[in-house]
Structures are given as structure tokens and as C-alpha cells.
Design goal:
Blueprint lengths: L2 H21 L4 H32 L7 E4 L2 E4 L14 E5 L5 E4 L6 E5 L3 H21 L3 E5 L4 H4 L14 E5 L7 E6 L11 E6 L2 E6 L6 E5 L7
Parallel strand pairs: 5-8, 5-9
Antiparallel strand pairs: 1-2, 2-4, 3-4, 3-11, 6-7, 7-8, 9-10, 10-11
Helix pairs in contact: 1-2
């Protein structure tokens, strides 16, 4: 259970027990038991918050800077005082609760699918697509885009050709003409994920996760989001 889920349980239990102690038709001694139980839940919640913050502080200062390559996914820990900060992947997808950065490896083709609907899914796709476009521009490779009409401004310049796609979908292809170009796609559900994909960023109402093709469950992350326009 994650710290956030544990806090939800503790706070919910404290509120429920307190309400029960107020409205339940019980004697004074029994009523006091309800309030003591609620106070215990509150104390445990405070201790959990302190423990989570302490763990976060330790994760922010790792002893060793490590870069772990897992297929097309790169996991990068935070900076180290001795080794210096490791290079971030070309396309950052998010960060884990312990401070690691998860992204797509810059060398070789990468196929990323952002799965989800709504504002957050669109924002995640916009951030990932912007990084793919920037990487293509830096390497001088060609770009091709397509999207649903309502998403055109996310992937295309005003004078750029952008063929239409179904509602809620968009795509950017870098290094057009290559045998295996880098692609980033936004789709509404798992059934629409392109057949060629290496990494899926799943965005739901419960959070965001990054999953490789050979995995059944993803790694929970705080997703990358687009920079605000000045």
C-alpha cells in the first residue's frame, strides 16, 4: 500500500469513528472509546507523514548516482556529490516517488504511447511530443505529425501539414523515411495502442504509470508536464 493510500484509510477511519462516537446511542464510557480510536488514527497519520517526508529527503540525496538501462527505458537516480548529476534521457516520461527519473533512451528508435483521455493525458502527450520534436530538430531529422482536429495545435505549427486522425488521438513521427523511426502517439485506450510500441505511459483517474512491453504492470510516476508559455 502506498503512503497516500494508507493516509486515505487512516483519515477515513478517524472521521468514521468520530462520527460514530457522536451519533451512536451508546453510554458515556463506550462513546469515549470511539474518540480514543479516532485519536489513535490521527496520531498514526502524523507519524506516517513524518516518515514519508524523511524517506523523501533521503531519496533526494542518493549516495551513488546510477543510470540503469532497461531496454528502451532509462531509469536515472538523482545527482551525487561525488559523481555529479547523470545525463537525463532524451525524452523524460516522469519521476518516481524516490526521486528517480524515467525516460526513453536517446540512442536508437523509440516508440512511446500515451494512453488516456482528458486534460492530464493530453498534457502528458504534449510534453512528450515536444521533447521528441526538440530531439529531432537537434539532430536534423524530419518530422511528420497527425492528429484529431481539436488537438492540432499540440503537434503542428500553423503552416504544417497535419492529416486528421480519430477524436482524442494524435501522433508525431521523427526521422521520417527511416526503417524504424521514433514515434509518440496519444490514444484513448489500450485497444488503440499501435502494434509497434516499446513504452506505454498510462494516464488514469488514479494516477500515471510507465510500462514496458514485456511488463504487465507499470511503475507509478509523477508524469512529465508541458512547460508553461511565458
Amino acid at each position: 500500500m502506498t503512503p497516500f493510500a494508507a493516509r486515505c484509510v487512516l483519515v477515513g477511519a478517524a472521521v468514521t469513528v468520530t462520527v460514530a462516537g457522536v451519533v451512536a446511542p451508546v453510554a458515556g464510557t463506550s462513546r469515549a472509546v470511539f474518540f480514543v480510536a479516532a485519536a489513535c488514527c490521527a496520531v498514526i497519520d502524523v507519524l506516517l507523514v513524518r516518515a514519508t517526508r524523511a524517506a523523501g529527503s533521503e531519496a533526494a540525496r542518493p549516495d551513488v548516482a546510477a543510470v540503469t538501462t532497461i531496454g528502451p527505458v532509462v531509469v536515472v537516480s538523482g545527482p551525487s556529490d561525488d559523481a555529479g548529476p547523470p545525463a537525463l534521457p532524451t525524452i523524460v516520461l516522469g519521476s518516481t516517488s524516490d526521486g528517480r527519473t524515467i525516460g526513453a533512451e536517446g540512442s536508437g528508435p523509440t516508440h512511446i504511447a500515451v494512453v488516456g483521455t482528458g486534460v492530464l493525458a493530453v498534457a502528458v502527450f504534449r510534453a512528450v511530443a515536444a521533447q521528441a520534436r526538440a530531439a529531432a530538430a537537434a539532430s536534423g531529422t524530419s518530422i511528420r505529425v497527425a492528429s484529431a482536429p481539436e488537438l492540432r495545435t499540440l503537434v503542428a505549427d500553423p503552416d504544417e501539414r497535419c492529416p486528421p486522425m480519430p477524436d482524442g488521438t494524435a501522433a508525431i513521427v521523427c526521422d521520417v523515411g527511416a526503417r524504424d523511426p521514433t514515434t509518440v502517439a496519444l490514444v484513448a485506450g489500450p485497444g488503440q495502442v499501435p502494434r509497434t510500441w516499446a513504452v506505454v505511459v498510462e494516464v488514469t483517474r488514479y494516477g500515471c504509470s510507465v510500462r514496458r512491453r514485456d511488463e504487465t504492470t507499470g511503475v507509478p510516476v509523477s508524469p512529465v508536464l508541458p512547460e508553461l508559455d511565458p
